[in-house]
Specification:
The complex is a heterodimer of chains A (484) and B (99). Chain A has 484 residues and is an alpha/beta fold. Helix content of chain A is 39%, strand content 13%. Chain A has helices at residues 6-14, 20-38, 46-62, 104-112, 154-161, 178-184, 218-228, 246-249, 272-287, 303-318, 338-349, 352-365, 371-392, 417-422, 430-433, 461-474, and strands at residues 41-44, 73-77, 115-120, 167-172, 187-190, 210-215, 258-262, 291-295, 397-401, 437-445, 448-455. Chain B has helices at 7-16, 23-40, 75-79, and strands at residues 85-86, 89-90. Classes of the chains: A alpha/beta (484), B mainly alpha (99).
């Protein structure tokens, strides 16, 4: 039953054909069997999970406050705070850090009665596209254990793909939900910036970070988002507007809707197998009666430098809090003053990619370079945002590839940071613009999954789910399981 | 405006972010940084005449609330994660000399 959807399991739970304790035990058993190979979890919360499952069963027995997520096992990316459960960001600097409070997302999932089975591996502080930049062993792609699962939410995507959870929470700063969803053949959404509270999320780029779920299909993603989205007084960037009931509009037909194809995303450099899968999906939408229009996002080529410059700058400031004083690793051997502790702690606690990005951020913000890099990037960010606004003047939703290739080999790009950055070319522009995007599996290239993304207007996740669901009603790519 | 980031500059920015690095690390980073920064110069091609910086977010508006006193994390709870504490305070080494 580990491969079933939330919707299917919910039926089994409320009709008492299974209990949450049974389901949770089966998930934990599957983790014990398969995760030695996949290494998607950093921490498995066996005891807590069984306790939560028992409480969920009581809720179901009394028919009290039962939600679609009550009793459903899920995995959480290890950058989201869980009270009493260590939260590492896959960094040595937080290796033994146990938060004293829950993130808003954690609270909401607790309230819904979902069952946390563990915390998943990631690129350290979200910095990477392969989950290789982790202080823990690299997560493997369940479709081919010699390949990466993508990143930075690679642990969450791999756990879901290998049936080690029924849904998984990720976080997308520049593709960190969509790219691993594509590499592992699962569905995932990066919601509009400000739709899901960031309170208790360990920040990477405060103006890009978007928490979003991975699930078996668009319907399940919609169900989870309904439960984690919404205004939070602890995060003043969250929208006040109420969260729509996404699942109630998901079955609306897509006939006559306008699908935009951004021409700048279909240029040389894409693998032939990826391109043909995407083109086939566009034909599928044409058959469903959508009107296909070519559109232009003229500043696309600047997306990558804008994204990385702003990331470096914001991250270098966000990571200043890890100083060995109030929490986390502290290295103080022979230190003569506080600065010595900072220097030693940060040297021992951060991995190379984190060091690179912090230093480049300080460089881009430093005297003499601020105008040329940081300010320039913020201006081009305005142009990226305007690109999307004008494209959405003539269409309802955009369809684009997620990655130019399928999952690459472990170790293939670790020696060249710039080459790793270039693999993010199709996903990074959405985050500076703040718009939502849904990743869907759409085929295979040489036995590895290919994904596409649907990009929507601000706060229009409902349309993304509707259009994604329509595709999944006529295709079964999302139902394929890895041979593991 | 291609520029190389020499090891002196690398050490300077490492110090800005309070990161201890060795000579060898400074050399590795220097090579990597130059190629990354060179790539960023692509932005110079973009015409940003009269374009305002995106300093605000799409939903940016002031959010106000009453300043109410509410219970917060206890001192004891907070100090659980502090590497070094004494008498209910976080303990640190000298920050400013000669005070």
């Amino acid at each position: 039953m580990n491969h079933l959807t939330i919707q299917e399991l919910r039926q089994l739970l409320i009709t008492k054909q299974i209990s949450s304790v049974e389901l949770t035990r089966a998930t934990l058993q599957r983790i014990r069997e398969a995760d030695a190979k996949v290494q998607s979890y950093v921490t498995v919360t066996d005891e807590l999970a069984l306790e939560q499952a028992k409480r969920a069963d009581e809720r179901i027995a009394k028919n009290e406050n039962v939600t679609p997520l009550t009793g459903i096992p899920f995995a959480m990316k290890d950058c989201i705070s869980t009270r009493g459960v260590r939260t590492t960001c896959s960094s040595k600097i937080l290796e033994s850090y146990i938060p004293q409070y829950d993130a808003t997302v954690t609270n909401k999932l607790n309230d819904a009665g979902a069952v946390l089975v563990g915390k998943t591996n990631m690129d350290e502080f979200g910095m990477g596209s392969s989950t290789e930049n982790s202080a823990f062993p690299a997560t493997k792609n369940p479709w081919d254990l010699t390949r990466v699962p993508g990143g930075s939410s690679g642990g969450s995507a791999a756990a879901l793909s290998a049936n080690l959870a029924t849904f998984a929470i990720g976080e997308d700063t520049g593709g960190s939900v969509r790219q691993p969803a594509s590499f592992c053949g699962v569905t995932g959404i990066k919601p509009t910036y400000g739709r899901v509270s960031r309170y208790g999320l360990i920040s990477l780029v405060s103006s890009f970070d978007s928490i979003g779920p991975f699930a078996r299909d668009a319907y399940d993603c919609a169900t989870v988002l309904e439960h984690i989205a919404g205004h939070d007084e602890k995060d003043s960037t969250t929208y006040q507007s109420p969260v729509p009931n996404y699942t109630s509009t998901i079955n609306k037909p897509v006939k006559g809707m306008k699908l935009g194809i951004p021409k700048e995303y279909f240029v040389a450099g894409m693998d032939a197998g990826v391109e043909s899968a995407i083109q086939e999906a566009i034909r599928q939408y044409e058959k469903l009666g959508m009107e296909i229009h070519e559109v232009s996002l003229p500043h696309t080529k600047y997306g990558l430098p804008v994204y990385y410059l702003l990331l470096f700058a914001e991250a270098s400031s966000n990571l200043a809090r890890f100083d060995g004083t109030r929490f986390g690793l502290s290295v103080s051997e022979n230190a003569k003053d506080a600065i010595d502790i900072y220097l030693q702690t940060r040297r021992a606690g951060f991995g190379d990619e984190v060091k690179r990005r912090m230093m480049l951020g300080a460089y881009a913000l430093s005297a003499g370079y601020y105008d040329a890099y940081y300010l320039k990037a913020q201006k081009v960010r305005t142009l990226l945002r305007r690109d999307f606004e004008s494209a959405f003047a003539s269409c309802d939703v955009l369809l684009a590839p997620i990655s130019p290739t399928t999952a690459f080999k472990i170790g293939e790009k670790t020696d060249d940071p710039l080459e790793m950055y270039l693999s993010d070319i199709y996903t990074v522009a959405t985050n500076p613009a703040g718009v939502p995007a849904l990743a869907l599996p759409c085929g295979f290239s040489k036995d590895m999954p290919v994904g596409l993304q649907l990009i929507g207007k601000h706060l229009d996740e409902a349309t993304l789910f509707q259009v994604g669901h329509a595709y999944q009603q006529v295709t079964d790519w999302h139902k394929k399981l890895p041979p593991l | 405006m291609t520029q190389t980031i020499d090891t002196q500059t690398v050490k300077h920015i490492a110090n800005l972010v309070r990161l201890g690095i060795s000579e060898e690390e400074a050399q590795t980073f220097s090579g990597q940084f130059s190629s990354i920064i060179d790539y960023f110069n692509l932005l110079n091609e973009a015409d940003t005449e009269n374009v305002p910086p995106a300093s605000d977010l799409a939903n940016a508006e002031n959010v106000l609330r009453e300043d109410e006193v509410k219970p917060s994390m206890s001192r004891e709870e907070f100090l659980k994660n502090a590497p070094n504490s004494e008498g209910g305070y976080v303990k640190v080494l000298t920050v400013l000399e000669g005070q």
